[in-house]
Design brief:
The protein has 473 residues and is mostly helical. 47% of the residues lie in helices and 10% in strands. It contains 19 helices and twelve strands. The protein has helices spanning 23-38, 57-69, 85-97, 108-120, 186-196, 209-222, 252-257, 262-271, 284-290, 305-318, 321-336, 342-355, 362-369, 382-387, 392-404, 411-425, 429-441, 449-456, 458-468, and strands at residues 10-13, 42-47, 79-80, 101-104, 144-147, 154-159, 163-168, 176-178, 201-205, 228-232, 235-236, 301-302. The strands form five sheets. Strands 1-2-3 form a three-stranded parallel β-sheet, covered by helices on one side. Strand 1, helix 1 (23-38) and strand 2 form a beta-alpha-beta unit. The chain binds one RNA strand of 76 nucleotides through helix 4, strand 7, helix 5, helix 6 and strand 12.
Length: 473
RNA sequence: GGCCCCAUCGUCUAGCGGUCUAGGACGUCGCCCUUUCACGGCGAAAACACGGGUUCGAUUCCCGUUGGGGUCACCA
């Protein structure tokens, strides 16, 4: 270790396993990850499972899956908060012993009565326990351990994102540290774990800013070093309210399901609330190189699916054809009612250069490939059927004849044949090409028609055309 | 409601007292390319919430108003 070494940066992501990895959580995880990587520090993952009733193993798996999908690797093993209960109690008892906490014997009824009274008198509610100054409680009765928070003065936080934030201590109440069953609350657990894990920078959602003041109470009472705080603004839905279920897809894996690439979501999330000049397309490498807390915006930002789609389209175009085929094949299967064979996947790879510029999601891409795998007779969408009416069958017959006479079957060769067919028939290329597209794909839109011809191959192409041409001629 | 936070085009943002007739991106609308749809290229419309200060000078600093958001558990 060199003499000039800065203290190591340690960040963490601490989700509670009560559901999937939320899009907002994913972004704070991304920021924490980026900050640690930028500073050659460590990024830790801690599962906050102190609420045994709501935590599930499935949720833990879902969160880890989301993290892995986004490429947010954590250092070391993941920590489970519930395993540190004894340590949490130890800290609470230490606080108790040193007079920074007290046993509170207030009943649930007393608590709610106080709350209702405050409500009726229209004044802010704050727990005021008579036990704060008493120590003559009956140890046989249930009690909780509360922090004896300072009443005078104020507490300030120098937040790396929000700036200096000050709260009057009188606003803070004596929060519960240990529940009546002896289990630790979140407030106690986070602080103890962050300290024990050596976390130097607490980067989390803005909704925790108020908690930070309470947590500082514990930190100071214990005489521990205060972490650097960075409370990043929340992500809002289109209506400007905190993103939630009713905004539709809010889970990271929902976006996987919808056909988004992880690098697209990641790039999008990075740009939401953070910017680096005019840069829009940012690689992971550049993100690590450029990321800093100073440029994190202070206001919440709205989630814009259109921009995400645009980014996704970009990354799809950039993606390797083989990789895309691997991702798309499973999405094609349900559309055609069977799995793709090895040969068909190879065809998908070959078709990819023509297919990928035309899709914004993998699902759209899958949808656009089905013409390659459908069996005759094709079914035709409305617009395609229209293209096959009128003169089309007659023109198709002429095109068929020209194509059938070809020695070589390539995009170049078929193009020459179709062009001359149109010329000889005295019509514009489109008048032949459009019916051809409809006959070959069943759709009114598709990749370039000569590429379609080449991809489908001579036999299948001629057969599909024959199905729709005027046999009399 | 108390407390806390926020405020540049419809959206994401650049801007960190003069370089701003405010830049980029998405979206929207034109045009070009073109057998369709995309991709790509070119162009257009589009913002400093309002009112006071401070200053020679405010988008940038301060205060207020308005608007928006967050938070007020023996949940995390």
């Amino acid at each position: 270790m060199s003499a000039t070494a800065q203290p190591e940066v340690v960040t963490r992501f601490a989700p509670s396993p009560t559901g999937f990895l939320h899009i907002g959580g994913a972004r704070t995880a991304l920021f924490s990850w980026l900050y640690a990587r930028h500073h050659d520090g460590r990024f830790l993952l801690r599962i906050e499972d102190t609420d045994k009733a709501r935590s599930t193993g499935a949720a833990i798996e879902a969160i880890l899956e989301g993290m892995r999908w986004l490429g947010l690797d954590w250092d070391g093993h993941e920590y489970y908060q519930s395993q540190f209960a004894a340590r949490h109690a130890e800290v609470a008892n230490d606080l108790l012993a040193r007079g920074h906490a007290y046993r509170c014997y207030m009943t649930a009824e007393e608590l709610s009565a106080g709350r209702e009274r405050a409500q009726a008198e229209r004044r802010p509610y704050r727990v005021e326990s008579p036990w704060r100054e008493r120590s003559d409680g009956d140890a046989d009765r249930p009690f909780v351990v509360r922090l004896k928070a300072p009443r005078e003065g104020e507490t300030a936080i120098e937040d790396r994102v929000q700036g200096r934030v000050v709260v009057q201590n009188g606003e803070l109440d004596d929060m519960v540290l240990l529940r009546s069953d002896g289990s630790p609350t979140y407030m106690l657990a986070v602080v103890v774990d962050d300290h024990d894990m050596g976390v130097t920078h607490v980067i989390r959602g803005d909704d925790h800013l108020n908690n930070a003041f309470r947590q500082l109470g514990i930190i100071r009472a214990m005489g521990w070093p205060e972490p650097v705080y960075a409370h990043v603004p929340l992500i809002h839905g289109q209506d400007g309210a905190k993103m939630s279920k009713r905004h539709g897809a809010t889970g990271v894996m929902d976006y996987h399901e919808l056909g988004f690439l992880p690098e697209a979501l990641s790039n999008y999330l990075l740009r939401l609330g953070w910017g680096h000049g005019d840069e829009e397309i940012i690689s992971r490498e550049d993100a690590v190189r450029w990321f800093d807390l100073d440029h994190v915006g202070k206001s919440p930002s709205r989630f814009d699916t259109k921009k995400l789609e645009n980014l996704n389209g970009h990354y799809i175009r950039e993606a390797d054809d083989g990789r895309l085929a691997g991702l798309v094949a499973p999405r094609v299967a349900p559309l055609i009612g069977r799995d793709l064979s090895t040969a068909e996947i190879e065809l998908l790879v070959r078709a990819m250069p023509e297919l990928k510029p035309r899709a914004k999601t993998l699902n759209e891409l899958a949808e656009n490939t089905t013409f390659l795998y459908r069996s005759r007779p094709l079914d035709f969408e409305e617009k395609a059927a229209q293209l096959l009416a009128g003169e089309a069958p007659r023109l198709l017959a002429r095109a068929w004849a020209a194509l059938n006479a070809l020695d070589e079957w390539s995009a170049l060769a078929t193009e020459a044949a179709v062009r001359s067919t149109a010329e000889v028939a005295g019509v514009k290329l489109g008048q032949v090409a459009q019916p051809l597209r409809a006959a070959l794909t069943g759709r009114a839109t598709s990749p370039g028609i000569f590429d379609v011809l080449a991809l489908l191959g001579r036999e299948e192409s001629l057969a599909r055309i024959a199905d729709r041409m005027d046999g009399a001629e």
